[in-house]
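Late entry, written up from scratch paper. The run itself happened at the end of the previous shift, but nothing got recorded in the book at the time, so transcribing now.
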Amino acid sequence: MTTLLLPSPAAAPTPVRAFDDTRRRLESLTAGAPRVYAVACVDEEPRRRWWYLGGMERTHRIELLYARAREDVEDPRIAAEQVAAALIHAVTGRVLAPYVLDGRVWDPGLDNLWLHQDSDGCIDWAGVADDTLRVLPDDPAADSGDVVVLPCEEAMAVWTAHRAVTALTAVHGAVCRSAPLDGPRFWAMVGRSVVTGTAQLPILGGGSRRVAARRGQILLDAFVAAGFPVRGLVK
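Output as recorded:
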């Protein structure tokens, strides 16, 4: 009796999580510096050099960042703005990237963000505890089960802005404990980070400049509607 050996069926490919897909996309934006825009899922990372933005150590950590900045610059205002800019990028600049390029966002809220510092004590990465993405209805991952679908760009911008201000308000308060940085200037810096990002990101990621500009303006509108003067001038 001859036994017919049939080839084993190929194993079905493991679907890529939406978060992992987005992280890889963002890691590719800046050659040689994959951490500039991407975030990590902190549950998958060793906790060395990570700290929780929503925790009790926030003020102390930001004071150390300010002290480190003062080693390089004499003007306390400039040092405070350098620290604020790094933290604004961690909260807003990073989530702006998937929003303007792909219509995806993670939760940038205070209770979800972690920050990573390099050996020099500077922020070089960010992470999230909950890596669930919010996506638009036409997103390829909309039916994957590991995302939350929001109805439109405006809804995504409103949700993102309201979550981000929880972190940004706490950051501003902590920075002000070390050096004066008034509210209008801080929030104008937030707005400038959005404007700058919407201009640069389509060049880095090959996206539509028109779409990026529209989404950036919608996000600015959401901040303003929430009561934060991001359209102010930075002098």
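The domain at 33-128+147-225 is CATH 1.10.510 (Transferase(Phosphotransferase); domain 1).
(Scratch paper discarded after transcription.)
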